[in-house]
Amino acid sequence: MAPFTFIKEESTGESPKFEVTDARGETWVVKVGPEAQAEIVATRLVWSVGYFADEAYYVDRAEIKNLPKLSRGQEYIENRSVVRGARFEPKRKNISRGENWDWEVNPFVNTRELDGLKVLMVLLANYDTSIRNNRVLSTTNSETGELEAQYVATDIGATLGKVGGLGGKRSKNTLADFRSSKFVLGVENGMVKFDYDTTPKKMGVFASIFKPSYRSSQERKERVMQNISVENARWIGSLLAQLSDEQLRDAFRAANYDEQTMNGFVAVIRDRVNQLNRLSESVATSKR
Fold this sequence. Notes:
This protein is of the alpha+beta class.
């Protein structure tokens, strides 16, 4: 793959990104910052239970030729040309990125599979479940040769921390926050209540006054992730329960987490999986 050569910087998204080409002429999108590690783990856990996920790799250090001074993420660059702690995502020529898909309007509405994906987003504490991150990818099925549409929750690096709204305490790739956050709050009328609050807080409320559409989009995210039946939550829990702790650790090893942090995250994930499998229709809703 190496050497890599800089192409251009991307200005979209919360995390700093730029494109490079490798020695074979393949294009990669490089992301730096707290999301780089978390996204590697999240994509592997989503993939491990049968969902499509972005292809992503973690690179500790990589030299980038012709790398200019970046407008974002320059703190992750050493000696003007070496990027540290980066997620590399290939732009495969056989995969085209199509339109966005809506959590509430798609071919899988009311299925356990869609609900299972929602539960995964909550379990991983993904606070950025915006529709703009949902993409329909088109590719040719290697077995049938037919064109295949894959509904993917992409860019899932805002995970492994604490869910919160703008102006509140939200974080990503932070074990202490992930460990201290609640997950299942209870059950009401056969539906699971999750600790998933993305509405603006404090100064975020003030900012949202000038952009009402933002507040409504956050309220919608919260509503979508709450509409999960006990049956469907337990179904995805049963799949996740088949993953051993060692397999969970492999997801973190792929992102080069240290042993202590890795084991801490795995313990929290295991506890959340157990919560799903202990769900009962008769559980009363607890207070936040």
